[in-house]
Amino acid sequence: MRVLFTGGTGNISTACTALALEKGIEVFHLNRGTRPEREQTGVRSLKADIRDPEAVRRALGSTRFDAVVQFLAFRPEHIETDLGLFADKTDHYVFISTCSAYKKPSLTPWITEDTPLENPFWEYSRLKAACEETLRKGAARLSMPYTIVRPSHTYDDGWIPGCFGSGSYGLAWRMLKGLEVVVPGDGQSLWTLTHASDFALGLIGLLGKEEAFGEAFHITSDEHLTWDAIHRIIGQALGVEPRIVHVTSEYIARLYPERGAGLLGDKAVSVLFDNSKIRRLVRDFSPRISFEQGIRKSLAWFDQRPALKIPDATMNAEMDDILKRWKAGYSF
Q1: 32 with 50, same domain?
Q2: Residue of higher predicted confidence among 124 and 39
């Protein structure tokens, strides 16, 4: 099988690349080549900016793929461009959408792929839902086989998952310094964190399967943790007790609307993802890495790169400001 990943060196796509190579899949990456240190041995690199269609056409040449996995489409116009680029280049187009597009809160905390896509709080989620609709209509017009995949909060080595950003050492740094950390609400809403290697099992298992054509699948862990538990597990791995301060999501949203959008429209709402659909089609899909294991892997990755164990300036500024105002009783 020959597969093209747009990007291929990111948080999720790196693990998907590793598993694809392990399974003997011929892997191509289409990216700008700005992260050569993250390219894996055995990958064939096609250098082009996905936002430059003519450059992409030149990079693709006459090569055809059994599957194309689009990790970098965030707006409907990105999908429209892809329809023109890949309709005649692949037998299976896979769009990476998001579980944040699901309506929350729903009538039941259990989320299936049939749960409506409706997020009035977060533009990112609404645009991803619009991408899905554009893909459905365009694929029908062009008779292009497609699948939609919706990850939730997925992390890999080098990520410390939190509700104020995950792609840095920032949260761990605050805990190690003994600084207070903001946790939304009462800290008891349930959240799902998925290790990228577990997500990869589901994604790679879908490629080329006709039963997946025209379908949507979310791929998440089966482990559900409260936000307090998530922070305490991180603290335990660091050997410290986190100093948690609970602040309502609405309060955070009033101070920092962009941050609040992801809380009110996603992270602050308890959801449980039903993975029975992906399991029916990908029989070996079984999330294996608990958050306790995954966070220790991520921290070990940072330990090997001490230069990256630095504070996150944006996270610190926001948390410090929120804590100052909250404790002072500041109201709007």
Answers
A1: yes
A2: 124
